[in-house]
Amino acid sequence: MKKLRKRISLIILAFLVLTLGLTGCQTEEAINKREKTLVISTFESFEDMYRKNIFQPFEEKHNIKIVLELGTNSQRFKKLKKDSKKKKPDVVFLTDYYAMQGVEKGLFEKINRKNIPNMDKLYDVFKEPLGKDYGPAYAISSYGLAYNPDKVKEPITSWSDLWRPELRGKIALSDITVGAGPFLLMIAAEQANVDIKQNEDKAFEKLKEISEHGVKFYTKKYAEIMNEFGSGEIEVMDIYNYDIEIARQHVPNVKWVHPKEGSYALMETVNIVKGTKNKELAEEFIDWLLSEEVQKAQAIDRVESPVNKDVKLTEEQAKWTIYGEETIKGLKTVDLKYINESMDRWTKRWNKEINPQKNN
Question: What is the C-alpha to C-alpha distance for residues 5 and 146, in angstroms, rounded to an integer?
């Protein structure tokens, strides 16, 4: 009997050791699984194409899981700024002047460029738009105009055409809180023949001229503006080149305009969030994002314009994209720090003088 009890005790002990060992393995496996999850804060638009061309191939290559946090620049940036115990993303996609705010507020990790060799393949202007310690631009967009040629008989060629009397009440433009809003102030200053840094009063006065003539300033209701563009209620609108395909669904023969004074460049940047435990994996992801393979796939699908110099496109593939060194050199850039310093002041003036109905 004693021998039987001893044998049973040994069996129980062996079972407990095995159970604890398996539990330990499962815990370690769970930890490893968590460590192999990369959380990316990104834009809602073109989510399917991002998954196809960027996220899924990276998941398969590295045997990880990518979790997305979706929203507008403003929504995601506000969330990033909050002091919260909730897990923050590892990587964040933001347009350039939101990203500059992130740099100024210390929200990003400094990157190790040696771990991102594809940065050397970028056009120079995209390598360090936020400074050498921070992430690159992974895509470029051009801000210009679109119009319906069935409605607008005299072609649009210039930013000054926004002030044409016959277009009163037929124009839709970005609100100051939308990515392109600050560009409109720059354009108004140019039309008023002043430097906005020296005389922003003149810029606001010039923009007020068309705001008083029924311009619709849109914030989050971009889909509604597109519907109005299709119905003919809106004949001219500001637009990025990557939205032309959407505009064509509403106005098949839409005309895209690079105004003769020049189009404005909007850079889409990628950065690593401060405090991440996945910095090296995040750097590998950025390198993948900048690769010729990804950049070309995104361009062919007309999601984004490439910043990698090695990408070669046919004439058809390059349609609606910002492609090639000469085209990129022709884009206007802005002083991101100056915009950030001015945005609170500009927004207050805008809501009072340019788009007061937004507050009604």
Answer: 87
Q: What is the pLDDT of residues 295-346, one digit of tens each?
A: 999 999 988 999 999 999 999 999 888 999 998 988 998 888 899 899 999 9
- State the Cα–Cα distance between residues 266 and 280, nearest whole angstrom: 27
pTM of the model as a whole: 0.78
Is residue 235 within 8 Å of 167, Cβ to Cβ?
yes
Q: Which string of b and e fits 296-319 if b means at least 16 CB within 10 Å?
A: bbbbbbbbbbbbbbebebeeebbe
Q: Which residues contact 15 (CB under 8 A, 6 or more apart)?
A: none
The residues facing 332 across adjacent strands are 264
| Domains of the chain, each with CATH number or no CATH | 36-140+266-323 (3.40.190.10), 141-263+336-359 (3.40.190.10)
What is the rounded distance in angstroms from the CA atom of residue 57 to the CA atom of residue 61? 6
Contact 145, 229 (CB under 8 A): no
Beta carbons within 8 Å of 302's beta carbon, 6+ residues apart: 242, 245, 319, 320, 321
